Automatic annotation (TrEMBL):
Main location as per UniProt: mitochondrion
Official protein name in the record: Protoporphyrinogen oxidase
Family designation: Belongs to the protoporphyrinogen/coproporphyrinogen oxidase family. Protoporphyrinogen oxidase subfamily.
Enzyme class: oxidoreductase
Cofactor(s) the protein requires to work: FAD
Entry keyword Transcription regulation: no
Residue ranges of every copy of the Amine oxidase domain listed in the record: 10-470
The keyword Secreted is annotated on this UniProt entry: no
Length: 479
């Protein structure tokens, strides 16, 4: 069997890794751009002791998805930079709300007492959940904002859930499905009539269950080390782009062909497989795994399967501006931490600011990453501003929010168009229908990547693995 993987981002490279491990060759990965890694991009400045990340910078070692990623990282023998839960970057998370920087609670004691931006102690949100009536959601879904407001009150929805969604997917919590992040809590609430009730009953059932641990196959040395040392997150020496680079190197050493600057322009399905229309040739293969954004795959299948194309286009995307800033000196921040988020109700173009130099040593520099736009990109930047105007906007709010008066020494501005898919209400059902269509028409096509099974690094890697493992074992034998 010949297999083609579309997309050389982290999910496509992972699909290649798992295909190689399970079936061997022949296998080719086609990437439209001249580099691998997708939105993961690290810019190192070794002479000045710092690096910029214009995409993700850390990975969480949590649960099965986290353990699964660590298996690859360990296989590639990549040196990591761990941040334990005791680290200031793990403990201190902040909001900019009501004209001030507010520290979020980082211990159980923080639930008692009133701290801005909240007008009452947070423990009352749990009482609200216990007293709130159960409401069955229409069509089995609702927005994460609606869910949080129903169960915990408006302040939690405005100042906890909404900024969290901004930080994760640059989206509007009033539109994002509760199943995006809180699927388990939502299911428990619907079944037992409340979140806390559901957690209690579920915990009781788990204690009385003899079900084997789901992590049994994933307990690598690195995963066990992360548990023992209580890692909150980790990055890579030289930046997170080392992961896709190492994956490409590993695949190349095992005779997997990774073709750059070679986009697929059309897919034609038949009883014999798939024909890929590439830059210089048409190529027949037996199966395609697509890690492409949904809208890009939609264009490839539109001619032959317009209905599938339309369903893929129903998954929206947002544009995000990322501004990396270097200041000389490491004592410019009044409060160290991972960074801060800005709730949408503040009506600012800034989604959040990451304090990179608090997470990792930057050789005496203060390194910040400002994120802007997202779901509100058109509202703030519809006039397609120049990089200078975007930089000026970012610096204005850095001065306003963080009270940094110094001028930066070095900056980078990136506008990432259609970079993050939005899991709006009904997304789970939408993806199920897309995969049902593929199954009904027996298309030799598998889907992985950020558009379908989660937007995080752990999610897209695990998505690739599950799609490969769903292929029949006979897939490895020639027809």
């Amino acid at each position: 069997m010949t297999t083609a993987v579309l997309g050389g981002g982290i999910s496509g490279l992972s699909a290649g890794y798992y295909l190689l491990r399970r079936f061997g060759k022949p296998l080719t990965i086609y990437e439209a751009s001249p580099r691998v890694g997708g939105w993961i991009r690290s810019e190192t400045h070794k002479d000045r002791g710092f690096l910029f990340e214009s995409g993700p910078r850390t990975i969480r070692p949590v649960g099965l998805p986290g353990a699964n990623t660590m298996e690859i990282v360990e296989q590639l023998n990549l040196p990591v930079r761990a941040i334990p839960r005791s680290h200031v970057a793990a403990k201190n998370r902040m909001l900019y709300a009501k004209g001030q920087v507010c520290m979020l609670p980082n211990s159980p004691m923080g639930l008692f007492g009133t701290k801005p931006p909240f007008s009452q102690p947070l423990y009352k949100a749990f009482i609200h959940d216990l007293l709130a009536k159960s409401t069955l959601a229409k069509h089995g879904d609702e927005s994460i904002y609606s869910f949080a407001e129903r169960r915990f009150g408006k302040e939690i929805a405005d100042y906890a859930i909404s900024p969290m969604i901004c930080g994760i997917c640059a989206g509007d919590a009033r539109e994002i499905s509760v199943r995006f992040l809180m699927d388990g809590l939502f299911e428990k609430e619907q079944k037992y009539g409340g979140v806390l009730k559901g957690l209690f009953y579920a915990r009781y059932k788990e204690k009385n269950s003899t079900k084997p641990g789901i992590f049994a196959q994933e307990q690598t040395k690195m995963y066990l080390q992360s548990k023992q040392e209580k890692w909150a997150m980790y990055g890579m020496d030289g930046g997170l782009e080392q992961l896709p680079r190492a994956l490409r190197k590993y695949l190349g050493e095992n005779d997997v062909n990774v073709q750059l600057s070679n986009p697929c322009r059309n897919l034609t399905f038949s009883d014999n497989g798939v024909r890929l229309s590439l830059r210089d040739a048409d190529l027949p293969v037996d199966h395609v795994i697509s890690s492409l954004p949904a809208y890009r795959l939609a264009a490839l299948v539109k001619q032959q399967h317009p209905s599938l194309s339309a369903q893929l286009l129903d998954i929206p995307y947002v544009d995000v501006v990322v501004v990396n800033i270097q200041f000389e000196g490491n004592n410019l921040l009044k409060q160290n931490g991972f960074g801060l988020l800005v709730p949408p109700c503040e009506q600012l173009p800034v989604l959040g600011v990451i304090f990179d130099s608090c997470c990792f040593d930057m050789d005496g520099n203060t390194i910040l990453t400002v994120m802007m736009g997202g779901r509100w990109f058109d509202q703030w930047f519809s006039d397609q501003p120049s990089p200078k105007k975007l930089l000026d906007t970012a610096l204005r709010y850095v001065r306003q929010i963080l009270e940094i008066k110094e001028d930066p020494k070095f900056c980078r501005v990136h506008t990432h168009h259609k970079c993050i898919p939005q899991y709006t209400v009904g997304h789970k059902h939408r993806v199920a229908n897309i995969r049902k269509y593929i199954k009904t028409y027996k298309l030799p096509l598998s889907l992985c990547g950020a558009a379908f099974d989660g937007v995080g690094i752990n999610d897209v890697i695990l998505s690739a693995r599950r799609q490969v493992e769903a292929l029949p074992q006979s897939f490895s034998h020639p027809t």
